[in-house]
Specification:
24% helix, globular, alpha+beta, 172 residues
C-alpha cells in the first residue's frame, strides 16, 4: 500500500452532536466544528452518479483530527457499505494525496476499489475500500491549500478551547 501518514480517524455515528459530546467528555477531543448537510459535487458511488447527504463534526485529539460523520439520507453509500442505520464504528482513516488520481490508481493496482469519489468545494476526495486488508476504508484528500487550511483551523481551535467546550464555530 502507500507510505503516506494518516491524518484523520473518522467514525460513522448515528448522531454527530451526541458523539461529539461523548468524545469531548471521555477523550478530551475538540472542540468540534459541525458542518451540516455538506454539499458535494460530481459524486460517484461504485461507478454510478450518486447523491450523498451527510453531516460531520471535526475536532482534534492530540496530533490527529477526529471526524464524526452521519448519513442523513437512506441511500447506498460507502458508509452504508459498512454500517446499517443505528450502527457505528471506525469507518476510515484519511491521508493527503499529492495527486488524487495517481493515488487512486495506486490503490487500485493493489486490488482495492475506489468506491466513492466527489468534491466539496475545491477539495477532491475519494474512499478506497481497504476493508479486506485494514478493516476500514481509506479516504484520500487532494492535497491543497484549502484542505491544509481546514486542518490547521481545527487544530488551532483545539489549542484555544475553554474548559468544557464541546462545539466551536467558524471564525468570522
Amino acid at each position: 500500500m502507500t507510505d503516506r501518514a494518516f491524518v484523520q480517524l473518522a467514525y460513522f455515528v448515528p448522531d454527530i452532536h451526541a458523539a461529539a459530546e461523548y468524545w469531548a467528555a471521555q477523550r478530551g477531543a475538540g472542540p468540534f466544528l459541525v458542518m451540516e448537510n455538506i454539499p458535494l459535487d460530481n459524486a460517484v458511488y461504485r461507478g454510478n452518479d450518486a447523491r450523498l447527504d451527510h453531516s460531520s463534526a471535526y475536532g482534534q485529539l492530540g496530533d490527529v483530527m477526529i471526524e464524526l460523520v452521519q448519513q442523513n439520507d437512506p441511500g447506498p453509500s460507502a458508509f452504508r457499505d459498512m454500517y446499517d442505520e443505528g450502527e457505528q464504528g471506525l469507518h476510515h482513516m484519511a491521508q493527503f494525496a499529492q495527486n488524487l488520481e495517481e493515488e487512486i490508481n495506486r490503490y487500485q493496482s493493489e486490488g482495492f476499489e475506489c468506491c466513492f469519489q466527489a468534491s466539496a468545494g475545491e477539495v477532491g476526495f475519494a474512499f478506497i475500500d481497504t476493508r479486506s486488508a485494514l478493516g476500514h476504508m481509506v479516504e484520500l484528500y487532494q492535497d491543497c491549500e484549502a484542505i491544509r487550511g481546514f486542518y490547521d483551523l481545527v487544530r488551532n481551535l483545539s489549542t484555544n478551547k475553554t474548559p468544557g467546550q464541546i462545539f466551536s464555530h467558524l471564525p468570522e
